[in-house]
Structures are given as C-alpha cells and as structure tokens.
C-alpha cells in the first residue's frame, strides 16, 4: 500500500474522481499550469485539459458563483480557494446561494459544489494565511463542513464530499499537509461524512478536536498518560457540521469530563457549540466544568502565533483542571 | 438605441419588421396580459392582507421578447420582474397563484416571498434576493451548458442597480474570459428602489460596460417587444456559434413601486411616470397587432376578461388551501434530513397539533 501525506492524498482523490466521473470539474487560482500554490492539483490540468481544470480570474466570489452555476447544471464543481482567509468575498455566494438553493427552490434546484481550501495557523502566515473560520460555515444550515486530520481521511472524505449531493466546505489542514505519511489505499474508497473517529481510547477525559489541532490534542493525551497516568479519549470529529452526536455521547458518559480543542477564537467558536451541546444534554454526567482550549479573541497574530494557538501545555493544563476538579 | 415599434404601433423608420407568425405574436401579447393582470390582482391581495408581498413587472413586460428568442432548453436566470419569461415557457398560472399564497401546493413549499420563484421543468432558475448574485451563476451555468450540449445558450436578467454589485463584475468578467454562451440582460428601469441611475454609475450608458469585458453590447428600447426579440435573437445566434456572451441594456421604466412595501412618490415625479405610461410596452404592441389586423378591440377585451376570470378563480382556490405541513420546514435543507434536524423536528412537533 502506498504511503502518502495529506497533500498527496488530496491530489490522489481529485485525480481518481476526475477519472471516474467526467462531470467533475476543478477551478481556482493558479491550479492549472502551476498545480496550485501548495501543489494539490499538480499535473491535473496536463492530464484532464484546461476545460476541466480551470485557471480562473482572481475573484473568489466569481469562483464560487461560477461553480454554483456549473453545479446547477449537474456538473460536480470543486473550486479551490487558495487560502480560506480569502474566501470572504465569496461568503455571500456560499451563505445566500450555495447553502440555500435546494431549500429555497423546494428541492427543485440543487448544486453539488465542494469548496476545498487550506486553513489554519502555525505556518508563519499572519492574519491572512492562518485563520480557521469553520464556525461561520457551521452556522449556515445547508452546508456541510469537513476537516480531516489524516491522509487516509483526507482522501476518503474528499471523495465522499465530491459525491455528496450537498454543498461541502472541505477544509484542509495546511500546517500538516506534509507533516507525516501513512498508508493510503490505492484507488477509490470513501470515508463517511458526519461520523467521528475515536483517535485514542481512554476512560478519564474526553478531548474533542479535528484537523491540525487533533494532533496537538493527541500529543497532550500521550503526555498525560505517560506523566500522570490520565487516559484521554480523543475524538477526531472529522465532520464539524452536521456533527456526530453519538460518538460524543458515548465518550462523555464514560469519562464525565470534556475539553474541546480548536484553534479559532474562543467566543462563539465551534468549541462553544460543543460545550453547549454537552451541557444541554449530559450535564448530569459531568464531573467537572466543560472546557474550551482555543485561540484567543484577537486577529490571528504573526510572530506570536505559537502563543496564540493551543499547545500541548495548555491542553495538559486543561486536563489537570478537569481531572483534579 | 435599437427600436422597431413606434408608440403608435407603426414600424420605425430604418427598422425592418421581423417576420414572426401571427399566432406567435398573439402568444406574446397573451402572456403580457397575464403578467399585467397578476400585478393588478397581486397588489390588491396584498393591500387586503391576503398575501404577504407583491413584486411588480408592470412596464417591463417586453422582456418576454428575450425568452421568445430562446428555446425552452436554454436556461433563464431571472432577477424578479421576469414572470413573463416563465409564463411564456408554460409556467402554470395555478403554480404561481399557489406560490403567491404560500399554500400547501406552492412548489416552493411556502418558503419564499411571493414573486421569488423558479421552475425546473421550464429551466427558470429560482432567484434569491441579494442583488446580482445570479449573474456569475449564469456565467458558470452557461459554461457548463457549452461543455454538456454544444449550441445551448442561457440568459440572465438583472437591474441597473445590480451593475454596481460584485457579482455583475465577476459574472461579466468570467463570462468574457470563458466565452460563456450567455445573454447578460440589464433591465435598466432607471431606479434601484429609490436611487436613480446617475447615482449608480458615472458611465454615460450602462451598455458601455460591455467594452471592458470584451463582449458586444446592445442598447435596446426595453418597452419594444419586437426590438427586444431581435436583439436577443442575434445574441443567441452568436452564442450558439461559439462566439460567447452579449451584454444587452434594455432601457425601460418600472411604472409601479419597487414592491408592495415601497412608496415611489417619495423619490420620483408623477410627470415622469405619466410620460413612461405613454410608452407602455403592452399598449404599443397592442397597436401594432391591431394595425396588422390580428387583434381587434373586441378580441383584446376577451383576452383581458379571460385572465381576469381565470386568475380570480385560482385566487379563490389558492386562498382556501392550508399552509404547508410543519415538516416541510426541515426538508430540503439537505438531500436527507440529518439527525440534528430530526431532533429539532421532534421539538417543534411537541408544540403543534399537526400530526406529520
């Protein structure tokens, strides 16, 4: 079985879907001859032609609106937004149009668009190459928001997203694009959306995370085990919206302690949703406060980014607080 | 400005009368009457509190000429004053009246403001309300049409206000670059709610914008259905031949308010309105048909009476229908109803007497 990093897995998924289904089209800035600024579409234009791998004008609202039009016609459009920090000119197209087409037309008009975009901090990218705005999209009924953390999931969930008849925001953790490799099956396979994965089993504290932060949470979980003998159950949410209630329920009924780990700002971030969901439904199982380890409520910093983002130390401090509450 | 019909229904000097069969001309007129009648009834129903909202087409019925120059397979992205294009293609009056009442037979399940509707069976796309967003979607759909079925074209309608929007720019730009077979039709009715054209753009004419996007532009009398048809027919032909998009500025006037919520006396002169009423697209076309002796005052009256009665009957039926089932609040958000929405449905069900 070949070994791939996340970037290679994304590229592989795109190539497979384009081969299997001639209605799959890619569009975006620099995705053609240049193969994308991260090389996620390397070689695809040469293989599938300029009509199906389209270098577009520099306009994110245009890219997404154009993709919606293609999707209405039955093509499966997979636009790339070069950095998710640049998605906001297209926010109206996503929130007002893409997310609502099926509903507003009584189910008559649907548009299958999967927006891929690298997100997240830790790459010395400063304000506009670092953000993690999943909560904005998770607050938009009609969208699905997917954030894989491993090469295996990146490939299987991207294929699922493209095949899913609903619009998907597919957020790629760019900090770990090339961080590690793992075995990834050749050819097509799917990983279902809206199903979380238990990344580590433990009975003491539940950590819920996704994307790049999942690995930081895993690192903290290993240290907690080694140094304090506290065993964390780590949930990789994988799909942020609509998310998997059952896996969370099972874990927190076991542990009675829960911490979410996300890298976006704290207030009204996705961790707030997770905390509220747990408090609303399972408060009687809770042995300790429900914590959020997040970024801070500031614009994404540059030179201080590693102080901004959740670290294993901050997560360990949280584990300590709920374990010794 | 392209023009064929004079106000008295004669053919303008230098213009050539298009060769259109009599029954087709009568169909155009018939649809114009339907649209105008729906406006008259719609505002009355809104004032009576029987429907929630009304959007007017009155004065802009010549847009039907654009639809008449296309095939029904060619998609149309409307703004919201193009009901005539849908009726021309065979949208049933029953559907549109049920939609006005947002009742249980409304194809859009009572989810939209009256006037904002689409119909897949006639390739008439469901519009939103944010302005201009459909322009780029039409460019993308046109590109897809070209990839899927050579020779297919599409059209998108928007107002003069939309030419200031982001997605007018992105749509025209992408359409030009990718040679979408798209008719970009600006229904320039000279007001964006209350804001007049000179506050919308410093360009002398909206049509001048076509140059910047590398596509041909045509300025046409938007109250002249024959000229609208001719200009669209030429643009359709270019698009079908792979020559890409055309920008059409249809110079017209909204005779009524923006919507039932608007009071146009606050921002425009009665005199202006009266002037434009003299250029009314239906009156002008009627005179042409009478000149050609394919319509008489008597047969004209019969058409108006026919739709008056037909729509009255549909209104009585639609008004008596119940609103859509509560469950429809949760369907069509996704292709299937996900777990969290099922739970929220259970919640709302607890507070209603409705069974399913």
Would you write up a description of this structure?
The complex is a heterodimer of chains A (325) and B (356). Chain A is built from twelve helices and 14 strands. Chain A is of the alpha/beta class and 325 residues long. Chain A folds into two domains: 3-183, Rossmann fold (3-Layer(aba) Sandwich); 197-323, Rossmann fold. In chain A, helix 1 (6-20) runs parallel beside helix 7 (151-163), helix 3 runs parallel beside helix 4 and helix 8 (212-228) crosses helix 12 (312-323). Chain B has two domains: 22-324, Thiamin diphosphate (ThDP)-binding fold, Pyr/PP domains (Rossmann fold), CATH 3.40.50.970; 326-356, no CATH class. Helix content of chain B is 43%, strand content 9%. In chain B, helix 1 runs antiparallel to helix 11, helix 4 packs across helix 12 (297-319) and helix 5 (133-148) packs parallel to helix 6. Chain B is globular and about 70 Å long. The N and C termini of chain B lie far apart (57 Å). Chains A and B meet through helix 3, helix 4 and helix 5 of A and helix 5, helix 6 and helix 13 of B.
Brief write-up:
Chain A is of the alpha/beta class and 325 residues long.
Poorly predicted regions of chain B are: none
Described by strand count, sense and barrel closure, the largest sheet of chain A is: 5 strands, mixed
How many strands, which pairing sense, and closed or not: the largest β-sheet of chain B? 5 strands, parallel
Q: What count of domains describes the coordinates of chain A?
A: 2
Helix-strand pattern of chain B:
HHEHHHEHEEEHHEHEHHHH
- Alpha carbon gap, first and last residue of chain A: 46 Å
Main traits of this protein?
heterodimer, A: 325 residues, alpha/beta, Rossmann fold, 12 helices, 14 strands, B: 356 residues, 2 domains, five-stranded parallel beta sheet, two-stranded antiparallel ribbon, 13 helices, globular
